[in-house]
Amino acid sequence: QMQLVDSGGGLVQAGDSLRLSCTSPGRSFSGVAQGWFRQPPGKEREFVAGILWSNFDTAYADSVKGRFTISRDSQKNKLYLEMNSLKPEDTAVYYCASTTQNFGSEMRNYRASNLYDTWGQGTQVTVYA
């Protein structure tokens, strides 16, 4: 079974940037879509960004659109989340995830966390003002 390991979190000041990485040790990424989710303190887990394996279609939460970019490098077997212009409200534990379920060719169909069957362990991002 595929496992995911996410990393790259840290403590940064508002306006700074971070790049999160997710890899599948020992095997290539598999699945229909990969996504990044986050869980702020005391809140539910929420969709941040996702990318379809087949056509690279992407989707973003409105709160991060224009600031975050999701990408993948098949040769390096990695998924990335580039986060720019970070805000204190971006503080959360960030998780990468993958799903083998197929809901069509548009990433917007894959926003719900319950569609994903494999998760990373999470990496903490803390943004201070």
Walkthrough of the structure:
The protein is an all-beta fold. Helices cover 0% and strands 45% of the residues. It is built from no helices and eleven strands. Strands 2, 4, 5, 6, 9, 10 and 11 form a seven-stranded mixed beta sheet that branches. The chain has a four-stranded antiparallel beta sheet with strand order 1-3-8-7, with no helix packed on it. A hairpin with a 4-residue loop joins strand 7 and strand 8. The radius of gyration is 14 Å and the shape is globular. The model has no long low-confidence stretch (mean pLDDT 95).
Could you give a short description of this structure?
By secondary structure, this protein is mainly beta. The protein has strands spanning 5-7, 10-13, 18-23, 33-39, 46-52, 58-60, 68-73, 78-83, 92-99, 118-119, 123-128.
List low-pLDDT spans: none
Largest sheet: 7 strands, mixed
Overall average residue pLDDT: 95
Gap between N and C termini = 40 Å
What portion of residues is helical? under 10%
State Rg.
Answer: 14 Å
| Tertiary shape | globular
The assigned structural class equals mainly beta
Total strand count, please? 11
